[in-house]
Amino acid sequence: MIDPDSLDAILREEWKAPEPTAAFEQRMTSAYRSAVRPSVWWRFWKFRVSVPAPVLVAAMLTIFALFFWLRPAAAPAVSPDTSSVVTRLNASGFQPLPNGHTRVIPAMEIQK
Amino acid sequence: MTQSDLVRDVRRGDEHAFLAIYHRHCSPVFQFAWRLTGSQSEAEDVTQECFLAMVNGAAFDPDRGTLRTYLFGIARNLVLRRLRISGREAEEPAEAVAPVDMLGDLLAAERSELVARAVASLPMLQREAIVLFTFEQLSLDEIAKITAIDAGAVKSRLHRARESLRAALAPLLFRDPERRCL
Fold first, then answer.
1. ipTM of the modeled complex
2. Topology at the third CATH level for domain B1-90
3. With bands split at pLDDT 50, 70 and 90, how would you rate the model's confidence at A52?
4. Most B CBs within 10 Å, among A5, A7, A47, to test the B interface
């Protein structure tokens, strides 16, 4: 009886498959590119722009400068006016004296 | 990133995702196709169609197996279709494996050629079973998923393939003292 492992070993050892040719990957990539049609959104999402660093820095500085230059001026801070304090009083039933004169009445006289 | 995510990106047009899958699975798929067709150009055609089918064909479902079994399943169907079109071979033939003139072959051909001929003489369905099991080292369940049959049928095909190969390669096996197992 033959050991199945020896059969497998002979098969693996003696029947080696080749690899794809070197040009096959290029062929596959071309075929994939022509077969696939990515959506507009996907192409937009995958869109990349390469910008030199000095150009990027200059663009960022320009944007910051425009931002600070064009923003509206802040309104001046208003401090609360403490010079005139208005106190609301209940003046119902108030009647001014007819002659406008004031008279001092001692407290003892009021009690009487 | 899971295999499903990669395949989803491939179908959306992400070339990096495509190349990631290609570099991982191209060689096994190609070698599988080569062992079934016996032709470099046909194996390359099958491999190309297989990877393009991943883009435009049936969606990959991780619940039904790995990406590897998915690709092998596509490649297997493509090979069978090609063989049917060319009229070379389709279903299992009723007759047994063609006898091999062992003595003449041993004298005239290399051992590898002899083994290749012995495997090539197997019926297609047995050949794919032995290739997937022995060379790609897939499990019975994985082969069953690829070939769309149950694992018992795979086991049966493997058994018949082994019997045929043992008969065809017996002199070769017995001739090698290191592998003799009597």
1. 0.71
2. Rna Polymerase Sigma Factor; Chain: A (1.10.1740)
3. very high
4. A7
